[in-house]
Amino acid sequence: MVSTPVFYIKCSNPVNSSLYVDTAPCLNINASSLVQQKTYSYVKVGDMEVGDLNEGCSAEWVALALLNYSKGYNTSYEFIHSALTYGFELRGDWPYDEEICKHKWRKYHTCYPHTIPVYDSGGIQTSLNVL
């Protein structure tokens, strides 16, 4: 299982998007007075970019959930809510991660060298060390 972000999204209008899961079966955030506008609540599972937000929607908060994809992914809010009850895994880089890249820089699963090839005006290559 892997910790996955779950974004809670509030929208001023109903949204029909495959990215959003309706929370209506479990959460009801209807306006409590005539002055407040009715809002619609959704969740989006996984990473989110600005372009993933529909017009009139805002990301209210984010949680991490342990989602077991080996059992299949169910897009119901009940499934997501159940996953949230298990908490999440908080992980840093483990010691063996350093061995994978042989002391190079690492981001996610990609290794980067500490040196950058540089060419002088005569076209001769040297290396620039980056610390």
From TrEMBL:
Keywords: Kinase, Transferase. One of its GO terms (molecular function) is kinase activity. This is Rust resistance kinase Lr10. It comes from Prunus yedoensis var. nudiflora.
